[in-house]
Write a structure and sequence with these properties.
Helix content is 62%, strand content 7%. It is α+β, with helices and mostly antiparallel strands. It has 4 domains: 90 residues, no CATH class; 132 residues, Phosphorylase Kinase, domain 1 (2-Layer Sandwich); 191 residues, no CATH class; 86 residues. The chain starts with a helix and ends with a helix.
């Protein structure tokens, strides 16, 4: 499909669902082309469905790439109105599967063997079909039940073409609409581009899965399926098949007497363990990727799949995030403001008192609720929205963390409505800070980096000498630049003095001319003077002007 044809298809869907109504016509840019394009829209029938529903249906009509974009967009609650964010969150990756013969040929080409040689059994009917890939059940010759994930054929060119169109639209909105810069459409499309292109590489997903499995090896809280690397390529992934209960199947969880309170609390603990202990968190924890083991309902264990999107934070950000969360729930808004400035999330020029006042105005209404009813994720959203007014640049990793926290919190309260996320999280954060920045924690981290330090030790004297030499060179350059600056300053001073004298001379000449005009008899007296007196007077004036 050509770009022009795809663009016309997008325009038809936009008109069908009246996406033009998302824009206030009175706020349209003054550009004549925009006004002319908007003119015919007035004759279209008024939309009957709510705006958020129309946007969701439009994205579904445009296909899997736009569906995925809507899912990413729904996580940016710091930028979107609540009704649109909530409606877009309903988007599901249930799209028609591609041809089963094509799936088999992709597998055979990637693994260089026929399907019947690779697997003892292979189901040509997919178990599930998503926007980027679909999954088939199979059995290895060694007896293990597996699932085979296959990337959709020729999807990358389609994705890149649609992303290019999204960038064009995003830049147009950013340049021409009053709220364009505030909504940061280009930033959102860039975030989506990274997300969906990463999902095309199943070897990256397999590596993430293996790492997460190692992090929770022998854990009774979270189980991650095994990857079979001999059968895994960039567009094919084979991993252990799991048979858990979908986490949203509340009825089935109750039927097996699952401890719902423990299940909800364990979800929170798993999240904070991934963020603060491992600094490697599953950032796509929507209900479709989470199951519950059937083995021990009184000690329920989660099963996590689809590790394509993984988040991590720098040590710097983790430290300041933990301190910020603790300060927020202690209502120490001054500390929150100082921490944002100290860690560089807002510019250093920000006035702490002004930022503190803005945070207090945003947070106090939330804290009027009982602590158990406060949304941890929404609290972060309000904080980021407030900080944006002070030019905070939110990093993608923080957005992923916010999105994951919202998913975990929403899921936890769906499982156990009385869940007090803060009561569960507070001791963990407090303990992590104590352990990490206690003398013992500092010694442990020093020991970890000690081999590297010892290896660099022999080079230390030479490095110090090099630094001293560089310091001397820098000082010499600085001195040379200072001398040039002094010379320039001297030249400027002389130039100013010269200009001042010229202005004075010009003023005196004007005064002389004015005097001659005002007193014509004076000129007659000068003419009566001896010639040598006139010459001396003229020479004196000339010498004075040269001075």
């Amino acid at each position: 499909m050509s770009r022009a044809h795809r663009l016309s298809q997008i325009v038809r869907v936009a008109l069908r669902y009246r996406l033009d109504t998302f824009v206030d016509r009175d706020k349209l840019p003054d550009a004549l082309a925009v006004k002319l394009l908007a003119l015919p829209l007035g004759i279209l029938p008024e939309p009957k469905r709510p705006r958020a529903e129309r946007l969701r249906l439009a994205l579904e009509a445009l296909g899997p790439i736009f569906v995925k974009f809507g899912q990413v967009l729904s996580t940016r609650r710091d930028l979107l109105p609540p009704d649109i964010a909530s409606e877009l969150a309903k988007l599901q990756d249930q799209v028609p599967p591609f041809c089963k013969d094509k799936a088999a040929s992709i597998i055979e080409e990637a693994l260089e063997h026929p399907v019947d040689q690779l697997f003892a059994e292979f189901s040509s009917e997919p178990l599930a079909s998503a926007s980027v890939a679909q999954v088939h059940a199979a059995t290895l010759h060694s007896g293990e039940e597996v699932v085979v994930k296959v990337v959709r054929p020729d999807i990358e060119p389609t994705i890149r073409q649609d992303i290019a169109l999204l960038f064009v639209l995003a830049r147009f909105i950013e340049r021409n609409f009053a709220d364009g810069k505030r909504l940061r459409p280009v930033e959102i499309v860039e975030e989506y581009q990274h997300t969906i292109l990463d999902e095309l590489d199943l070897q990256r997903e397999a590596a993430n899965t293996s790492q997460l499995r190692r992090n929770f090896e022998n854990s009774n809280k979270l189980y991650i399926p095994q990857v079979f690397w001999d059968y895994t390529r960039r567009n094919v992934l084979v991993m252990e098949r799991i048979h858990g209960i979908p986490v949203t199947d509340i009825e089935q969880l109750h039927d097996q007497n699952t401890d719902m309170k423990m299940l909800a609390e364990r979800g929170v603990k798993i999240f904070f363990t991934q963020v603060f202990r491992d600094n490697f968190f599953h950032a796509d924890m929507h209900p479709g990727n989470i199951f519950v083991s059937r083995e021990d309902p009184q000690q329920p264990q989660y099963i996590g799949i689809d590790c394509a999107i993984i988040g991590s934070l720098s040590d710097h950000d983790r430290y300041y995030l933990a301190r910020n969360l603790l300060a927020m729930f202690q209502r120490d808004y001054h500390q929150v403001a100082l921490l944002h400035i100290e860690c560089g999330w807002v510019p250093a020029k920000t006035r702490p008192e002004e930022f503190e006042s803005a945070i207090r105005s945003a947070m106090e209404p939330i804290f009027e609720k009982p602590l158990g009813e406060i949304s941890f994720g929404q609290l972060l959203i309000y904080l980021f929205q407030t900080a944006r007014r002070f030019d905070m640049e939110v990093q993608p990793s923080l957005v992923l963390l916010q999105k994951t926290l919202l998913n975990i919190e929403g899921l936890g309260r769906q499982l156990y409505p009385e869940l007090d996320l803060w009561k569960t999280a507070f001791p963990y954060l407090e303990q992590w800070l104590k352990e990490r920045y206690s003398p013992k924690g500092i010694i442990e981290r020093t020991k970890k980096h000690l081999p590297s330090l010892l290896e660099q030790l022999p080079d230390l004297p030479e490095a110090l000498l090099d630094n001293l030499q560089q310091s001397k060179q820098l000082q010499a350059i600085s001195d040379q630049q200072q001398r040039k600056l002094d010379q320039l300053q001297e030249q400027l001073t002389k130039q100013k003095q010269k200009q001042s004298k010229q202005r004075s001379s010009f003023a005196i000449i004007l005064v002389l001319i004015a005097a001659i005009i005002a007193y014509p008899d004076a000129l007659e007296h000068i003419r009566q003077l001896p010639i040598w007196s006139q010459l001396l007077a003229i020479a004196g004036v000339w010498l004075w002007l040269r001075r």
